[in-house]
Amino acid sequence: MRRIVAVRRVLGDALGHFNDDDGWAMASHLAISALMALFPFLIFATTLASFLGAQAFSETAVHLVFDTWPDQIAEPISKEVVNVLTVQRGDLLTYGVLLAAFFASNGIEALRTSLNRAYRVVESRSLIHRRLQSLLFVLIATIGFVAISVLLVFAPLIARLAVARFAWLEP
């Protein structure tokens, strides 16, 4: 009986807090912000990767992002995204990359806002500090995606070399 009362109290508090802090609106805000930040992130990541010499990154990044989506939705979108990302542009490229990084960081800001509301935290850091931190997270995610795409290419080669050199690794 005490457990039922405790469960009711916890559920009441959680659902009440969710309702009082606009949980449905924040969930929608987070979902649309993440979706809208995805494409600028891909533009920023592929531009940075091609600058670093990883031109094949765009297809790998698109597959990493869209492989979890249903095929009927992901296939047409991923083809167009690859087309957009692989076209070389020289006009205002620097500004475009900086704007893409800024808009990609909006998804992180939406996540920060939602988590602050969920955990009843009042944000005390300045807007500039938060935005620079979000841009750093975008850069870290980009480096992570580049590392994954490089490892996807080199891992089979390294595995073959290791098996050729150390026969006991094959089983």
Average pLDDT taken over every residue: 81
**DSSP summary, beta strand count:** 0
The largest sheet is: none
Question: Radius of gyration from the CA trace?
Answer: 22 Å
Q: Given the structure, what is the number of helices? A: 6
Secondary-structure element series? HHHHHH
Task: Describe the overall structure.
By secondary structure, this protein is mainly alpha-helical. 81% of the residues lie in helices and 0% in strands. It has helices spanning 2-20, 23-51, 57-66, 71-86, 93-118, 127-165. Helix 2 runs antiparallel to helix 5 (93-118), helix 2 crosses helix 6 and helix 3 (57-66) runs antiparallel to helix 4 (71-86). The radius of gyration is 22 Å and the shape is extended. The relative contact order is 0.13. The mean pLDDT is 81.
Summarize the structure.
With 171 residues, this protein is an all-alpha fold.
Task: Give the helix/strand layout.
Elements: H1 2-20, H2 23-51, H3 57-66, H4 71-86, H5 93-118, H6 127-165
Helix pairs in contact: 2-3, 2-5, 2-6, 3-4, 3-6, 5-6
Characteristics:
mainly alpha; 81% helix
